[in-house]
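In the previous chapter we treated chains in isolation. Here, by contrast, the input contains two separate entities that must be folded as one system, with a combined length of 517 residues.
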Amino acid sequence: MPLSDARPQSIESLYVSHHSWLQGWLRRRLGCREQAADVAHDTFLRLIGSLPGDIRLDEPRAYLTTTARRLLIDRARREQIEATYLAELAVAVQAGAQAPSSEDVYAAVQVLAQLCDVLDGLPARGQEAFLLHYLDGHTQAEVAQALGLSVRMVQKHLAQGLLRCQRIMDT
Amino acid sequence: MAARPDASATLPDDIAADAALWAVRLDSEDPVERASAEAAFQVWLREDPRHAEAAQAMRGVIGRLALLRGDHEHSTRPVRAAVAAGLRARAPLRRTGSKTAGALLAVLLLAGAGLWAWQGPSPRVLMADLRTPRGAWEPHRLADGSTVTLGSATALDVQMDAQSRELVLYAGSILVDVAHDPLRPFRVRTPHGSIRALGTRFVVEVGPEATELSMLSSRVRARPLQPEPGGGEAGTVVSAGERIRIGARQLGAREPIDPRSVTDAWTSRLLVVRDEPLSTVLDRLNHHRTVPIVFTRDALQSIRVAAVLPLDDTDRALALLAHSVPALRVRRPVPYLVLVDTKASP
């Protein structure tokens, strides 16, 4: 964290000095004024959230772009999830599956984004164990065999995943 | 995104972790293990009133997960694919353990359904210096005075220093107007090759297997990424009025084009199709859409079309195509996709 002996600044003065610059930076990366405005706003919200009290930043713009980059990755990930989900759904619908409603698709994408958050905090084997059991429906023994793990280890991974689900997913 | 406050959220970590492990043990398919787990679980429940609450919360979590599975054979593929894509997007520099064979199959499946562009953007695209969303057109002026207009779903990096000027185009298409600078060569790199600008105006479009270069003014030197030895390492000169495909290993044949109509097409956002397979035309339309057109490539490849189509109103473009190809059927079963096939199809 770039604490320093820079002068303390209020959020308001940081906003005035850097908001429009940040929006320009984001607009080039996103190619869309509206999206850039959203992300710029969220970046400042993060700033408020993570730096209570006196804000002292040696390089406010570097700090802002670092935060904005993280938000861009989150946003891009959501786009990625939605695009892939829709594309696969389209293939399934073309093959004769019932097309879910737009509302169902929207809800599914929200859950999937949260599931990705859950999985992101698990090791690769844990991710696979979780998906094999809770998504594909394989038994714990089958998962253990597929991954070359003991059932005990599989259970540990599954439990770790469940715990993250509880913390991350909506009630 | 904020979850409603939930009593279980305030349970200490160790109780929640225990409850998770109990839920998993009780879920074992081995009846012996399950029976012994059940007995020990009851003992655990009696130890503390909060344990029951924690167990209940875990049952809720497992219930929610069951919903993800859905109730038909087509359910898990989209979820798996979306999750894999989401995990890749979060870690642009980290190699995840995802199976390459599975990923490749997914790509082929999507390509067969006309959806290769919907794999989702690669990490390079996500972090590019300049990007446009689908359906956009965006002009930019570069530091050296060159202008680059980005077409739909385009992503590029700009690398300029005292010695050289370079654009790295990862996806999409650009119309470049190179500012004169005799001291610094101007280069455009794509996944398939590179273009060294000797002259001023051209269009570069990255496709799934090749890059298409359309020369509007003066000349460039184009070379593939991995040219055949003794072949095109130095690059081939392409002049105004010529279009050429740059593949990773070799250049395609030159086609004549009319620079003025290419320029007009960019400014007026029109796609002029003289004689092309319908599947290719739908691919191009898809590039500018947020709601995908889904079709079977094989079925539509043999239908050839000529048309002038608006790229900033691709629904109208579809209507125009349906009008000129009577056998074509366009259906919108849900708002998020469009199905195109022939009336004869099942």
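The CA atoms of residues 27 and 34 of chain A lie 8 Å apart. Chain A touches chain B through 71 residues (CB under 8 Å). Compare these points with the single-chain example from earlier in the chapter.
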